[in-house]
Design goal:
Helix content: 55-70%
Number of strands: 2
Number of helices: 9
Number of domains: 1
Mean pLDDT: 85
Distance between the termini: 41 Å
Strand content: under 5%
CATH superfamily: MFS general substrate transporter like domains
CATH architecture: Up-down Bundle
Low-confidence stretches: 25-34
Structural class: mainly alpha
Strand order of the largest sheet: 1-2
Length: about 325
């Protein structure tokens, strides 16, 4: 997101002419003179060209990156068994119907809805809202700020995880719940109802949109997204320790599926619909995650107890 924001800022700065504006078609005579931000064909070509180049470079770096064995790594090569494609597929299907993965599916679906919303829907409202139309660098600021929020929350989680046991589980999920709730409340109050589907000059419900508020919301989005992605990664590794890769792949399937559904429904949804949907999936996913995380930790303690009993070792503390 940070690199993407820098690319957008560079492209917009190269366009020395004034931003292309277009009048709102369905408007009253009192607002007939209002204009809205439109991206030129050159800007669109430059954006897609730059992001294509970055994607190709990223794939090239990944393909050429050296692989080396790390001592005591739980995913080390010496711990892996060679399996055929059919065996791998059978493992994925078995993980699909696992009770824990089914219980975690609301979390993965929420992640898909939420990701599609902050990547596609909310940035669109920044362009479709009249009071923000003249701020041509706002999409770049949005991307930069979301990326900054992701990095900041990643540092916070990694730091507190060293001090607080299991901070990457329930505490991080509760942080994500609180941040997402604040984000949705701000959007309901400060985003015009129909800004998700078309150009609009209607006022917001309580607070009128502004650049500062939009950038602050973007920062909160980055914080919340980092929380939810972190707990997804951790719970996939803990819920199915012998099928980590399959669990993560299944979570991405649910995420993509939810994002696809949201994009098909997007022409019919206002900001209030999005907020209600996301809050419902947030509550459901948090409840399911807390349940699965609690059961996983209990089973982990039971496994440790059985191991210590077999070794005739008296544990001091679980």
């Amino acid at each position: 997101m940070i690199v993407g924001g820098a690319i957008l800022a560079g492209i917009f700065s190269l366009n020395h002419s004034a931003p292309e504006l277009s009048p709102l078609l369905n408007t009253t005579s009192a607002h007939a003179g209002h204009a809205y931000r439109q991206f030129s064909d050159m800007e669109i070509r430059m954006m897609y060209g730059a992001f294509t180049a970055v994607t190709l470079c990223a794939n090239l770096i990944f393909a050429l990156a050296p692989s080396r064995e790390i001592p005591d790594c739980i995913e080390g090569k010496h711990n892996k068994l060679r399996r055929t494609f059919k065996e791998e597929l059978d493992m994925v299907l078995a993980a699909f119907v696992n009770k824990r993965m089914i219980a975690l599916s609301p979390l993965f679906l929420h992640l898909g809805f939420y990701t599609s919303f902050w990547v596609c829907v909310y940035p669109t409202t920044l362009v479709f809202t009249k009071s923000l139309s003249n701020h041509i660098y706002l999409p770049a600021f949005y991307s930069l700020t979301v990326g900054t929020g992701e990095v900041v929350m990643g540092i916070i989680i990694s730091t507190l995880s060293k001090r607080i046991k299991d901070f990457g589980l329930k505490p991080t999920m509760f942080c994500g719940f609180g941040l997402t709730s604040v984000i949705l409340a701000v959007m309901v109050a400060a985003v015009p109802k129909s800004a998700t589907v078309g150009l609009t000059d209607e006022p917001a419900w309580l607070v009128q949109p502004s650049v500062v508020l939009s950038v602050f919301t973007a920062f909160l989005i980055g914080l919340a997204d980092s929380c939810v992605n972190n707990v997804r990664t951790v719970i996939c590794a803990l819920a199915l320790p012998d099928h980590r890769a399959q669990a993560f792949a299944i979570s991405k399937f649910y995420q993509a599926f939810a994002g696809t559904i949201l994009m098909f429904l997007s022409p019919y949804l206002s900001i209030y619909h999005y907020s209600a949907l996301l809050f419902f999936t947030l509550c459901l996913s948090t409840s399911c995650f807390v349940h699965v995380a609690g059961r996983t930790k209990r089973m982990e303690r039971e496994s440790i107890r059985q191991y210590l009993d077999a070794k005739d070792v008296l544990p001091e503390k679980y």
